[in-house]
Amino acid sequence: MLGLLTAILAHTAAYGNNHTLGGSYHMALELLALVGTGTLAMAVAALAALGARHADGSVLAAALARLCPGLVELAASGAVWFAAIETLEPEHPMKAPLALIVLALAVSAFLVSLATRSFVQAIAALALAIVTQRFVRRPVTYRRRFTRPSSARRTAFINRRYIRPPPITVTL
């Protein structure tokens, strides 16, 4: 899916806004790239959360870095996706030079690879920061107990005195 993202970026760099990517499949391709990237992000976050208790920072980051494709694999996948997208599109009058397309694929593969690796490192650092912080001191707060004003206490006491009849009436 990162190859699709690379192809979308390269297509935008090569052709600009002259025509839509993939013709009528434009929205489906963008949603597929979004879902694939989001799934990768959730998988990395889940693996970082599971591995954070058993590894230190550099080990966890190195283990998660294996999930990121290399620059050559990303460029090759992007080229395959780019070719597939171009076959979906109807004929368009503007043809980009092959050198520009190759350069756009290389640059977009580098940018996607850099962004993916920095994202994975940030997720690893965040997971370790959450796991290693065992105790957080709370700020001291002083709470005053609620006390009724003295006149309200006195009124409650006076009203309570006359709940039952006086004892003198019971003896008669």
Can you characterise this structure?
The protein is mainly α. The chain is 69% helix and 0% strand. The chain has 7 helices and no strands. Helix 1 (2-15) crosses helix 5 (98-132) and helix 2 (26-51) runs parallel beside helix 5. The longest helix is centred in the last third of the chain and has 35 residues, at 98-132.
The coarse silhouette is elongated
Low-pLDDT sequence parts: none
- How many domains? The number is 1
Cα separation of the termini: 98 Å
The SSE string, one letter per element, is: HHHHHHH
Helix content: 55-70%
As a whole number of angstroms, the C-alpha radius of gyration is 34 Å
- Number of helices, where a helix is a run of at least 4 consecutive DSSP H or I residues: 7
Major sheet description: none
Q: What structural category arises from helix and sheet content?
A: mainly alpha
- Beta-strand portion reads under 5%
Write down how many β-strands occur, each being a DSSP E stretch of 2 or more residues: 0
Q: Averaged pLDDT, please?
A: 79
Summarize the structure.
This protein has 172 residues and is an all-alpha fold. Helices cover 69% and strands 0% of the residues.
SSE map:
Elements: H1 2-15, H2 26-51, H3 57-65, H4 71-88, H5 98-132, H6 150-161, H7 168-171
Helix pairs in contact: 1-2, 1-4, 1-5, 2-5, 3-5, 4-5
